[in-house]
Amino acid sequence: MTTTTAEKSGRRPVRAGLLLVLAGLGAVIALRGRLPDPGETLAVLGAVDGWWAAAAVVAALGSQLAFADQQRRLLAGFGVRVPAGRVIAMTLGRSAMSMTLPAGSAVSAAFAFRIYRRYGAATSVAVTVTAVSGLLSMVALALLYLAGWLVSTPAAVPWAILGAAAVLPLLFWGRGLLAKVPRQVWTGGLGAAVVNWALDMFCLVAAAAACQVTLGWWELALIYLAVQVVRQVPLTPGGVGLIEASMLAGLIAAGMPEVTAAAVVLLYRLVSFWMILPMGLAGWLAIRDRKPEVRTEA
Question: Is residue 122 included in any domain, yes or no?
Answer without folding.
Answer: yes
